[in-house]
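Predict structure. Chain length: 402.
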Amino acid sequence: MGKTDPKAEFTATLEEFEQQNKTIICQFPARYQWLKAQVTNDWAALECPELDTWRNLINPKAMTLVFPTAYMNSPSSMFGHTLLRIDAKDQTRHKELVAFAVNFAAEPDENDNAALYALKGLIGKYPGNFSLMPYYRKVREYSDIESRDIWEYPLSFSESEVERILWHLWEMQSATFDYYFADENCSYQLLALLQLARDDLDLTSSFNFHAIPSDTVVVLNEQGLLQAPDYRPAFGTKLHHYAKQLTPQELAAAKQLMAGAEFDNSQFTAQHSVAIYEVAYEWLNFNFYDQGLNRDDIAPRLTKLLRKRSQYKIASPLTKPPKPTVSPEQGHGSARVALARSDSKNYGQTTELAYRLAYHDLLDSSAGFIPGAQISFLDINASYTDEHLQLEHLYLIDLRSG
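Prediction complete.
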């Protein structure tokens, strides 16, 4: 009803609340609490055993916005992604992986080919819904399998505001939305969820035509809702950084170990041997996920490498990847307008006008983006010379990955 007639739904909801219909009240706790504060204080307190059990299991205190960077191998993830992590009251940095994550995603038809997938995603032919799951599942998917760096931004919400968001999430559990890749996507719907925390928040009104995940992070930052982010380097990022710390001879030894062979560790110090075993393990594990290798073949080799490494009672000599100096919300904006004028002997005076809807090309600063990757969407360039207007190029979408 609310999709086509919000006023009628509001009237029906208010009637049920005034009659103290507990089934409806416990189905819509966020609406009930808000209307109770706006209309009357005579309504009973919220008493919903199932909701209380759900809330106690999550044990919420704070929320973190999670931004996995772009993934070029999937049309739905080429611009990045956002989700939420619910931080429990007893949570520490070491317990973050067992926290709960809130994700909004489309449910595509597995039988659709790539062209149909893109088309149906653009015109809203896939259903989208919210889901709650352990955070480690999303880290494994994004960081380990897809090798995407992850940025984690603590959100500046009070505990009561976090609870209000969760009440609305409870209401959304059975709701289905039309999923549009360009605008009403994962990031847009998360903004709509988060702005329920405060009546004065407006996070979605500026996204009329497209909602690029990095742009939605910028909006949250402009509203003062983001704290300094933590950085979780991807599997591939860590492996690349580790490999740079080894000599060519040590990398060759690591390759031998990956293949199941032994190496002469008398040629290396204990610290160097530890580095070789650790890189061999990480490298083989990366190939297992990246290339979809056979588990029965790879698992014994990984176990053997761990057993060999455990024989050295010394700390790892490998340093961790440094946190990039520029985080995603500090990168350039996605849309671009350019005006240029030139004068030459051969072509005379030329005026060029260019517009790009999104999102990044190789001439842009790579700070905050994937180095060597380009994703241009609706990129148009026209020139005007001697009263002649000419279209230089029109790219609906242009992808490159180095």
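Summary: The radius of gyration is 26 Å.
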